[in-house]
Design brief:
3 helices, 2 domains, mainly alpha
Amino acid sequence: MTRNGLIVSGGAIIVAGIAFATLTSDHAFQIIALCSSVVFGLARIVRGLQPFDTPPGAWTDDLADRFGPPDSRPQLAGSKCAACAQKIMSEMEAALCRQCGAALHRGCRKDHRVEAHRERSGQAYR
């Protein structure tokens, strides 16, 4: 959320809390609604007024350690199988061809080896 958005939403929370507290007949509930809306509204306003280099929620380099090192393996889920041309739905059902590096379903590996990697003599691979 942007800086102005935080400030405006904090003011809106305070105004809504005051309006809700005036419309409520229970005195204890009025105090709770008023105090909580003022606290939450002021917290958002203060957060919006604080200086920051990057917007809240933006990706920074210090988040890389939180999620571990980058994975060097290719993304297989969502790619097309080189043998059957169907979409690979999960990493669990996917494999890479050892010869050409194509994305395959695990069940399609044998067919891919036979069809795509024939020897020059025309004989089936292995």
